[in-house]
Amino acid sequence: MTSALGLGTYAFFWEGAHTLPTGPNPEPLPLGGMLARTAELGLSLFQICDYAPLLGYSAAELRGLRATADDLGIRLELGTKGVAPAHLRSFLDLAGVLGADYLRSMVFAPDSRPTLAEAERMLREVLPEAEAAGVRLGLETYEQLPTAALLALVEEVGSDALGICLDPANTVAALEDPRAVVERCAPYVNGIHVKDFAFSRRDGWVGFTLAGAPMGEGLLDYVHLVETVRPAERGITRIVEHWLPWQGDLTTTVAQERDWTDHNVGYLKEH
């Protein structure tokens, strides 16, 4: 089993979706199925990230999820959005039940856009509780917040429990150079979301679409990322995700999503 490499819910974006472009998904793949698929691929790590149904799980359902993960030999991580103390505390509670020691988040949530000073205050309030619980928090790089501002926040807080969840693909939308983002963030990275990406011309050659690509076929310089961040040496986990556009119907889309997962896991095991 590869302890530092895992899947996340974004690798099951379509297969596990409750709502599709065509309407409700009658049979979304549950978390238990995602865990089983993770084990089938020889992985022992799974990140439940931005998975809204988790907040509605009963205590018994959470214990059952933990038992399933334990039986499969899978370690869990969590992911959410926002830095409001009450919200982060709810996920620290979930981490305790699920045995997760890593929580990915973002500075902004759908209903909250704190200033950096407000975010700093919020993080300082809750990080001692994260440290006591043995949970590391990683704030993700993304286009809504310049990387320089994210780095300034992490440096100002200065907690061993706080780092950066590196996803250079996100920052392309803000016209940031992915290689430069990797190099600037490297000392603070404590988690990685791995996806390749590429631009393609839209119909009629009117503009471009930025979307996912199989690993090694897009613009992500993964060799540079690994050489710069050194995840294996530092015990930094890598979570496989996709930006797979809808392929017109669920069967075709899920089949391609599974193919991408198989390909990407194989690629990352070799690199």
From TrEMBL:
Location of the Xylose isomerase-like TIM barrel domain: 36-261
InterPro entries in the cross-refs: IolE/XylAMocC-like, Xyl_isomerase-like_sf, Xyl_isomerase-like_TIM-brl
GO molecular function terms noted in the UniProt entry: isomerase activity
Key words, A-Z: Carbohydrate metabolism, Isomerase
Gene3D superfamilies: Divalent-metal-dependent TIM barrel enzymes (3.20.20.150)
Domain of life of the organism encoding this protein: Bacteria
The name this protein goes by in its record: Sugar phosphate isomerase/epimerase
Organism this protein belongs to: Protaetiibacter mangrovi
